[in-house]
C-alpha cells in the first residue's frame, strides 16, 4: 500500500497514481486506487462516478460506511478498482477533527476490507498535509513522492519528510519513504537535469531510475476517462510509467524474497 503524497499541487500525484495502477493491473495485478482528493481527479481519470451524492471515501471516513460498498471496478480495465472521492471530502478535513481515531479512520476502513485481496493499493492524496494526508500515511506502508523537475521542487520537501517522520513515530511504525519519482522532466532544459541530479544525490536509491517526461498525452488522457496506458500506449509518458511500474514491482518482489 503506497500513499502518493506531496503537499504541492500539480506535481503529478494523480497522474502517477492512476498510471502506475493501470500499468500494474495490465500485468495481471489487482490494484485499487483510493481517491483522497476532494477534487476527484483520479476518479475522473478512472471513469468512476463521483458526482455529488455518490457514496464515496467521504462516507467511509465520516459515516463509517464499509469501503467495500463504494469501491467500483474501472470500466474496461480488468483488475483495476477505484474508491471515488466527491467534493464532500473537502469538509472531512474539518469534520474529522472532533472524531475518535480521526487519524486512523482510513486505516481501519482498509483493514476491515480484506474480502477483495489487492496486490497494490495507491492512495492519491490532496495537495495539503492535513488530516486526509495523515490518514493516508497512517494506513500505508510506503510513501511515494512525485517530484516535479522544476525550480522550487525541493522547497517544502523537508516539511513533507518531517510529517512522514511524525506519522511514523506516533501512528505507523512501518511507514517508510520508499519511492521518489521524478515527473514532468523536460530533457531540453538544464534546470530539469540539475533538479534530477540534486534529488538523486539527496535520496539515492529511493529515486526510481525511470523518469517521467513531459508528455501532452498524459494530460489529455483523463478527459477521455482513461489512463495513458490505454489512451496512447506507445507514447513516451505511457512507456515511462510502464517502466516505473516495473521497477516498483521488482522492488516489491525483492522485498518479499528478502523477508
Ligand atoms: P497533482 O495530483 O499533484 O495535483 P496532476 O497529476 O493532476 O498533479 O498533474 C497536474 C497537471 O499536469 C495535470 O493537468 C496533468 O494532466 C499534468 N501532467 C502531469 N504529469 C504530466 C507530464 N509528465 N507531462 C505533461 N503533463 C503532465
Ligand atoms: Mg491530484
TrEMBL record:
Residues 2-176 form the AAA domain. May play a role in septum formation. Belongs to the ParA family. This is Chromosome partitioning protein. It comes from Planotetraspora mira.
Amino acid at each position: 500500500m503506497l500513499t502518493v503524497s506531496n503537499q504541492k499541487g500539480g506535481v503529478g500525484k494523480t497522474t502517477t497514481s492512476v498510471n502506475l495502477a493501470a500499468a500494474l493491473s495490465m500485468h495481471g495485478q489487482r490494484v485499487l486506487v483510493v481517491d483522497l482528493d476532494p477534487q476527484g481527479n483520479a476518479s475522473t481519470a478512472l471513469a468512476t462516478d463521483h458526482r455529488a451524492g455518490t457514496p464515496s471515501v467521504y462516507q467511509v471516513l465520516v459515516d463509517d460506511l464499509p469501503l467495500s460498498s463504494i469501491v467500483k471496478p474501472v470500466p474496461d480495465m480488468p483488475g483495476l478498482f477505484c474508491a471515488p472521492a466527491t467534493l464532500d471530502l473537502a469538509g472531512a478535513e474539518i469534520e474529522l477533527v472532533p472524531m475518535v481515531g480521526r487519524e486512523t479512520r482510513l486505516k481501519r476502513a482498509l483493514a476491515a476490507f480484506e474480502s477483495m485481496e489487492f496486490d497494490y493499493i495507491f492512495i492519491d492524496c490532496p495537495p495539503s498535509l492535513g488530516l486526509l494526508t495523515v490518514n493516508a500515511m497512517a494506513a500505508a506502508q510506503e510513501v511515494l513522492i512525485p517530484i516535479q523537475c522544476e525550480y522550487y521542487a525541493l522547497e517544502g520537501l523537508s516539511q513533507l519528510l518531517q510529517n512522514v517522520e511524525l506519522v511514523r513515530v506516533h501512528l505507523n511504525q512501518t511507514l517508510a519513504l520508499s519511492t521518489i519519482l521524478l515527473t514532468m522532466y523536460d530533457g531540453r532544459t538544464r534546470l530539469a537535469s540539475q533538479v534530477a541530479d540534486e534529488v538523486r544525490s539527496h535520496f539515492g536509491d529511493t529515486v526510481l531510475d525511470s523518469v517521467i517526461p513531459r508528455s501532452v498525452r498524459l494530460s489529455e488522457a483523463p478527459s477521455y476517462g482513461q489512463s495513458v496506458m490505454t489512451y496512447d500506449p506507445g507514447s513516451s509518458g505511457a512507456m515511462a510509467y510502464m517502466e516505473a511500474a516495473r521497477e516498483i514491482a521488482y522492488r516489491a518482489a525483492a522485498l518479499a524474497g528478502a523477508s
